[in-house]
Amino acid sequence: FQKPPRCMPPCVDVNGLRGDVLVRALRRAAIHPWRDAHFWREAARSVSSEPPELLAGRHLAQICLAFRRIDFPSQVLSQYCQRYVGERRQALNTFELAAALNYFSSASAGIPGAEDFVR
Known about the structure:
Blueprint: H1 19-31, H2 37-48, H3 57-69, H4 75-88, H5 94-107, H6 114-118
């Protein structure tokens, strides 16, 4: 137990990570099944703490795809996606918009008003 697993991503703590490093850590973590819900909650909080104008659309798309890959519905990330799309809709390309809305619709299933936002 003193030696970490061989396939462990280099970043265990996502607090303080920004930009490419955060996206790379989340994409790699989605591949490894040993990540727990606490890690993904911290990751969602870390992403949502960044202002939408500082997070590139491609980074949000990759983060949403990582959360979708493990089927982790985070309300924090879902609300951030809604805010991000609301503020930066014109700056997103089709792939980025589709990834963000796909995650939002899957994580917000059953919440009143979610379907109206996606339309």
